[in-house]
């Protein structure tokens, strides 16, 4: 008995020191040098609570790579921070061109997700196409709704989704701030700072992104575009925890060829970005295909070191095998994005 109890104590430090597999991260933001000041203002809460966040957002070279080294990230897929999708296409173009240059100069450490002007659907489709076909981007990461709170389940977005299917690249639906008409529902008998948080990273924009995935399903998008690959961050934007109920209740109204449970397994990928707890992971490991679970950090809003510490905790926890840990760390991303953890593009 005594000996058995000693074994875990003996193993723990060994696993703790064991080198982690290479890490690829997919929800890692920057701010273009042409970002309008009004948009930068949206980050006032982060500026207050995350040390050095503006410097990190605005850097696409030394500071970023040094931070990647600290968190043992071998390849970072860079994307623009939330909010740019409400501005005309020239802003997205300038931002994507900047990432293109940074990727080229990064010696294989960076890859790019396109940003797109989702408030202008035709321009968004054209810019997505340009970024993938001309700039070598590995997908898109876009604001979860347009500037008026409109979602992307309408006909006007079909050309945008068509690009994703044609080039077989994923679209990462990324939370964004409530639009003007959405904001009041987060206000109440409390401080505006609380309202701001409840509408954004403290709850609202996650629930809103989960809702968007359900709206896309309800609109029949996954019948029209059966090969579509959608990524939802933050441990799946609440969907895994509601999966059983969504599956059961959507069967009452859905006329889709594949039910939600099947679409979830086949068309949705999720990342760990910015949620550092094993509790949600236990649920996800039980109801989400292991090859659809991807490590990500949400740099610079959280640090690569915090992410690395959590990956080590996951590794030690016994919840995943070595092979599953490697899949989450980089192999799933290599397959989904056709990249190599060391930055080599697979054609
Ligand atoms: C985009 O175009 C507008 C209107 O012409 C201009 O004011 C703005 O500076 C441009 N922004 C960028 C990043 O090119
Ligand atoms: C969804 O469809 C699959 C495959 O047809 C089936 O096995 C499963 O029971 C369905 N799930 C729900 C919740 O209806
Ligand atoms: C990266 O990995 C690929 C496949 O494993 C290998 O062919 C390539 O030589 C590696 N490149 C570098 C720069 O290490």
TrEMBL record:
Pfam families: Amidohydro_2
Presence of keyword Signal: yes
InterPro entries documented for this protein: ACMSD, Amidohydro-rel, Metal_Hydrolase
Signal peptide start-end: 1-16
Superkingdom assignment: Eukaryota
Residues of the Amidohydrolase-related domain: 93-338
UniProtKB keywords: Decarboxylase, Lyase, Signal
GO BP field: secondary metabolic process
Keyword Iron belongs to the record: no
Sample GO molecular function, one term: hydrolase activity
GO cellular component: cytosol
Family the entry assigns: Belongs to the metallo-dependent hydrolases superfamily.
Protein name, as recorded: Amidohydrolase-related domain-containing protein
Organism of derivation: Triangularia verruculosa
Phylogenetic classification of the source organism: Eukaryota, Fungi, Dikarya, Ascomycota, Pezizomycotina
